[in-house]
Design goal:
Blueprint (H helix, E strand, L loop, with lengths): L22 H12 L11 E6 L2 E6 L13 H20 L2 E7 L7 E9 L31 H8 L6 E7 H20 L2 H10 E2 L9 E2 L7 H13 L3 H14 L3 E7 L4 H20 L3 E4 L2 H4 L3 H9 L4 E9 L21
Helix pairs in contact: 1-2, 2-8, 4-7, 4-10, 5-6
Length: 344
């Protein structure tokens, strides 16, 4: 599948970095990792512009999700994760990188990254860069083995005066968390606009699209994947989805991670996305898999109930499952970095 045009972006190999090439060529290579970040509905809401030694991370206006992400929260989290990938790649390939979020002098940019080539490429397989192209969202059943202490420590280190991150064992919190997620699912999928929007991003296993979620992401056969968009759009499946995800959380998930912020505005969403982007790479490095679930943080007041579970007065922004599973999931389609470049 990776040989198809809409999957070729995942074939990036860090050994191919043009160490002796021009700076522009090297910055293009960094972007090949930026575009591999996760995003809601696999909408990939990013654009990039390169000017000299500066990378501008821009919001792609045609990737909005007015029903699933009306305030742009999930979009900014995805952009933060893309920024994290770029920073990880820059570090591996010998750049010192600094960044500014939402620079006032450039209203169209959500982030500006400035780089200086200071070192040769790092050697070894222990860097987070080496797992970016291996990561995928895994919606499978997980074993009930808890993540190792190294993951708990990585999460603990994310806590600052403006960020709160916590691992919640589902053996203790499963019922409460499943109830919150279920409430969000029922509310979101009761809206015809939300179902219509989601159906556009549900793709068949044979898709040639560069965005969206093929049926195999959710374990569906090719036949079922062809029917899925119509099923989502026209049938009242919310109770079935609620039951399925409730079972997934209570019986097949050892832990979830919640990342919360002191404030609730675009800068905080980007910061949460930066931390999320790093933690899912740490998880991948530890042979863990992850699965972002949006309902508990974006639908109505569900976040308040999740907030009560975390015991923090910070606003939950990111919620994802984490665990081990022998079941692998192929990558989702991806636009190449050339598709995402703009000169505007």
């Amino acid at each position: 599948m990776q040989h198809k045009k809409n999957y070729i972006a995942w074939a990036v190999d860090y050994h191919d970095f043009p160490e002796h090439g021009e700076l522009l060529e090297q910055l293009h290579f960094l972007l090949r990792y930026g575009i591999l970040a996760p995003s809601s509905h696999n909408s990939q809401p990013w654009q990039f512009k390169i000017v000299g030694d500066v990378i501008y991370l821009l919001n792609s206006a045609d990737r909005q999700l007015p029903w699933g992400d009306p305030d742009g929260r999930l979009r900014h989290i995805a952009l933060g994760a893309a920024l994290r990938n770029i920073l990880v790649a820059a570090d591996y390939f010998g750049f010192d990188a600094t960044y500014d979020l939402l620079p006032a002098e450039i209203p169209s940019a959500v982030a500006v990254v400035r780089v200086i080539k200071q070192r040769t490429v790092r050697v070894g397989n222990n860097h987070l860069l080496t797992v970016i192209s291996k990561r995928s969202t895994n919606r499978n059943h997980y074993s009930l083995t808890m993540p190792p202490p190294a993951f708990f420590e990585a999460v603990r280190l994310k806590n600052t005066s403006s960020i709160h991150a916590v691992v919640l064992p589902m053996a203790q919190y499963g019922e409460k968390i499943a109830d919150v997620v279920g409430e969000g699912i029922m509310s979101a999928m009761s809206k015809t606009g939300f179902r219509a929007e989601m159906s556009k991003y549900k793709k068949s296993n044979l898709t040639k699209s560069f965005v969206g979620m093929p049926g195999f992401d959710m374990g569906f056969s090719t036949l079922m994947s062809l029917l899925l968009p119509s099923i989502i759009r026209f049938l009242p499946i919310a109770p079935l989805v609620k039951k399925k995800d409730g079972t997934l959380l209570k019986k097949h998930t050892p832990a979830v991670v919640v990342i919360s912020t002191a404030t609730d505005e675009p800068r905080a969403w980007l910061e949460a996305g930066l931390q999320y982007g790093e933690l899912i790479l740490v998880a991948e490095q530890l042979s863990l898999v992850t699965h972002f679930m949006a309902a508990a943080v974006v639908v109505g007041d569900c976040y308040k109930k999740l907030q009560a579970v975390t015991g923090s007065n910070f606003r939950p922004q990111v919620f994802f499952r984490v665990g081990f599973t022998p079941n692998t999931i192929p990558h989702s389609p991806r636009r190449t970095h050339e598709h995402c470049l703009t000169t505007v």
